[in-house]
């Protein structure tokens, strides 16, 4: 998870933006993107990403899913 110091904020203020940014950075820093020169989408499709990125991918999915689920209105959004 990325830590922001001081008054740093993401330019993207939409729901699930923090999870999306962390997933993006995790994928870009993975060996698949750095060494194999693949796009993050190709790395996700090949399932050649580290477990940390898989966890972030699942968290991002759950966050997006909670936006559509009416039961989540009372429980709050998942993710950060």
Automatic annotation (TrEMBL):
UniProt keywords (A-Z) are: Disulfide bond
Quote the cellular component terms of the Gene Ontology held in the record: mitochondrion
Disulfide bond in keyword set: yes
Report the InterPro entries cross-referenced here.
Cyt_c_oxidase_assmbl_Pet191 (IPR018793)
Pfam families named in the record = Pet191_N
A biological process term (GO) from this entry: mitochondrial respiratory chain complex IV assembly
Question: Does the keyword rRNA-binding belong to this entry?
Answer: no
**What highest taxon heads this organism's lineage?**
Eukaryota
The family this protein is said to belong to: Belongs to the PET191 family.
PANTHER family, sorted = CYTOCHROME C OXIDASE ASSEMBLY FACTOR 5 (PTHR28627)
What role does this protein play? Involved in an early step of the mitochondrial complex IV assembly process.
Name of protein: Cytochrome c oxidase assembly factor 5
Taxonomic lineage per UniProt? Answer: Eukaryota, Metazoa, Ecdysozoa, Arthropoda, Hexapoda
């Amino acid at each position: 998870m990325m830590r922001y110091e001081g008054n740093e904020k993401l330019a993207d203020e939409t729901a699930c933006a923090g999870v999306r940014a962390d997933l993006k950075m995790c994928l870009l820093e993975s060996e698949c993107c750095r060494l194999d020169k693949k796009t993050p989408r190709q790395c996700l499709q090949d399932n050649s990403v580290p477990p940390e990125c898989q966890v972030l991918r699942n968290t991002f999915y759950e966050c997006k899913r909670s936006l559509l689920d009416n039961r989540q209105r009372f429980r709050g959004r998942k993710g950060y």
